[in-house]
Amino acid sequence: MIEIQETYKDCLRIVIAEAGVSNAVPEISSDKEPDKALRKLLSESKPIEVTDDSAHYEIVFDDYIAYAVTNESYDGGIEEKFEGRLARIYSESAFLNYIGQGTFATEDYPGPFVHYGFCCLNQIIDVVSERPPTVKLINA
Question: Are 92 and 76 in contact (CB under 8 A)?
Fold first, then answer.
């Protein structure tokens, strides 16, 4: 996630960059990681990163019921049903449970809504909205 902002009343703008596997192999010293086996594993791993050549996407929800940003290290806990991989549409989720219990949003008011999820490198973004977002490639 590069940016998230509320641009005007009930409008949410998210900018996400496509990350890729770097060719750089990090050097891990014994000072940084004393465990030899873990140090070997880390030194053979390649970081995932956003570069100047990464595609950036702007995702705009003209209105929304709720959104949340969660540190990806703390995501999970219940079984969820969704379609997609990094951009998801959920049919069952903890966030939908929260909407049902923590708000007065229903299928009747404001109307049918959908839980959209975006799995980023360090964050999970959850948005519940009546309408799908507009998605635009803003650089290539």
Answer: no
Alpha helices in the chain (DSSP H): 36-44, 94-102
- The tens digit of pLDDT for each residue in 79-121 reads 899 999 999 999 999 999 999 999 999 999 999 999 999 999 8
What pTM was computed for the model? 0.85
Q: State how far the Cα of 130 lies from the Cα of 128, in Å rounded to an integer.
A: 7
Distance CA 120, CA 93 (A): 18
The CA distance from 110 to 97, in Å, is 17
Handedness of CA 52, 54, 58, 64 (dihedral sign): negative
87 burial via Cβ count (<10 Å: 0-12, 13-18, 19+): middle
Contact 17, 86 (CB under 8 A): no
What DSSP designation does 108 have?
A: T
Residues 13 and 4: beta-carbon distance below 8 Å:
yes
What phi and psi, each to the nearest 5 degrees, are found at residue 68? Answer: -145, 145
